[in-house]
Amino acid sequence: MIDLHTHSLLSDGVLIPAELIRRAKVKGCRAIGITDHVDQSNFDYVIPRIIAACSHYSDSHGIIAIPGVEITHVPPQNIFSLVKEARILGAKLVVVHGETLVEPVVPGTNLAALQADIDILAHPGLISEEEVTLARDKSIYLEISARKGHSLTNGHVAGLSRKLGARLVINTDAHEPSDLIDREMARKIASGAGMVEEEIKAAFENSNRIVDRCAI
Predict the structure, then answer these.
(1) What is the reported pTM?
(2) Which of 61, 72, 174, 197: CA 20 to 30 A from 106?
C-alpha cells in the first residue's frame, strides 16, 4: 500500500508526524505522503516541519515518507502561485483539495489546480470531461478517496477516467488512525467505485510512479 494523502496535527489531523508515519508502516504502507492543509497563511510554517519529520523518521520507521501539502479552499486565482511557492520551499508532493460534494469548495478550483504544477487532484467531485482530459494530458493523477463523504463521487471519477484515459490513485485522506487502510481495503474501495482488476493494478502502479518521481 502507498498512501499519498494524509494529515498530521500540523493541520487538522490528530497524530504527530512520527506516529502517523509509524502507524502507516504497521498498516502495511511502503510509502506515505504527509500532505497537511495549507493556504497562504501557513504554508511557510507547515512545509519545513513536514520536511523535518520525513527526514527524521523515514529511515528509523522503515518507510518512505514524502513531504507534501494539500492546498485547501484557496481561491482558484491564487492556486498557481501557491503551488509554485510550495515547490520552492521543498514540497515534493503537491495535492489540491478538489471540488468534493461535501464541502463548499469554490467552483473553478479543479480547473485552476489542473492548470498548475500539481501531482494529485484530491476528491475532485463531479469533475467535468474537459478537466479529466486536462488531467490526462498533463499526467496529473485523480484521486479515488477512501474518506467518508469525499468517496461519494468515486464512481463518477473512475468512469470518466476510464472513458478519457486519465490516471488514478487510491488514497485515504487520513486524519486519524482509524482512517488508515491496508492494500486489501484499498482494493475493495476501488472495486466499489466500479474499477476492474486491471484498473486497480494500474492505480497501485501509479502510486509507485509518484513515489519514484518524488525520490529524485
Answers:
(1) 0.97
(2) 174
Helices (H) and strands (E) counted in the chain, each on its own, are 8, 7
pLDDT at 215: 78
Q: In what order do the strands lie in the sheet with 64-71?
A: 2-6, 31-38, 64-71, 93-97, 120-122, 141-145, 168-171
> Rounded CA gap, 126 and 196, in Å?
21
What does the pLDDT read at residue 164? 98
- What domains are defined for the chain? 2-214 (3.20.20.140)
* 3 state SS of 189: helix
Which residues in the chain show pLDDT less than 50? none
- Sorted by sequence, the CB contacts under 8 Å of residue 207 that are 6+ apart come out as 2, 4, 31, 169, 170
Q: Strand, coil or helix: what is 2? A: strand
Q: Give the count of beta carbons closer than 10 Å to the beta carbon of residue 171.
A: 28
Q: How far is CA 43 from the centre of its chain?
A: 16
Q: What is the pLDDT of residue 58?
A: 81
Exposed/middle/buried for 193, CB within 10 Å: 0-12, 13-18, 19+? buried
Rounded CA separation 108/14 (Å):
30
Q: How far is the C-alpha of 4 from the C-alpha of 181, rounded, in Å?
A: 12
Give the Cα separation of 192 and 53 in Å (integer). 34
Residue 194 CA to residue 214 CA, distance in Å, equals 29
3-state class (DSSP) for residue 80? helix
